[in-house]
Amino acid sequence: MFIFAHRRLATIIACVIGAIGSVCSAQPLPPPGECPQPRFTGKAPEEYYSRKNPLEASDKNLKAGERLYAGGKKSFGCATCHGKKGDGKGEMASQFVPRPRNFACAQTVNDIPDGQLFWIIRFGSPETSMPAHEELGDEQIWQLVLYLRKLAK
Ligand code: HEC
Q: Cα separation of 85 and 35, whole Å?
């Protein structure tokens, strides 16, 4: 009886933390960092979607984007989820469904317009773990967008 209860508990915990996805769902979960990566993200409203990055891909802007992406003491950054190299395999990536976007995957990312990236960074992706970053100014978000473009190969 004790063993039975124990196993049930272990199964429930496994489901809750999502460590063994196949216990909860028939479909195995996709690994983080797939390329091409399936994408179901909502589309930005037109006023954002059609925006073009107003910044030049200068060293200064790319460096600033890189710093924001890496994060530090003051801000959490993006690398923890999206990976240091942008490959979608950050330390926390396997906890999230859908998986964090793989920015190194040009096949998926090059088709996403600047304005869409901007909108998701500012407001997050509803019902996913992609958080809003309303503390960032327009310039900082555009610097991040420049850096994300650099990560795509
Ligand atoms: C807590 C984890 C987490 C953090 C931190 C995080 N993201 Fe994400 N991000 C995600 C997940 C999960 C998705 C996938 C959402 C989806 O499929 O709609 C995502 C998706 C995205 C997308 C995809 C947009 C699209 O239309 O496909 C962009 C752009 C993005 N993140 C940028 C960033 C940037 C820039 C930062 C840092 C400022 C950041 N993210 C921080 C988890 C995170």
A: 14
HSE, CB side, 13 Å, CA atoms: give it for residue 31. 6
Cα(121) to centroid of ligand 1, in Å?
7
Give exposure, 84-121, as e/b (b: 16+ Cβ within 10 Å). eebbbbbeebbebebbbbbbbbeebbeebbbbbbbbbb
* Both tokens assigned to 114: 């600047």
Q: For residues 124 and 104, what is the distance between their CA atoms, to the nearest angstrom? A: 20
Tens-digit pLDDT profile for residues 118-151: 999 999 999 999 999 999 999 999 999 999 999 9
Q: How high is the mean pLDDT of the chain?
A: 88
How many Å separate Cα 66 from the centre of its chain?
Answer: 15
How far apart are alpha carbons 117 and 152 in whole angstroms?
13
**125 CB less than 6 Å from ligand 1?**
yes
User: 130: CA distance to ligand 1 center in Å?
Assistant: 4
Query: Ligand 1, from 66, 91, 101: best to mutate by most atoms within 8 Å of Cβ?
Result: 101
Give per-residue pLDDT as tens, 47-60.
999 999 999 999 99
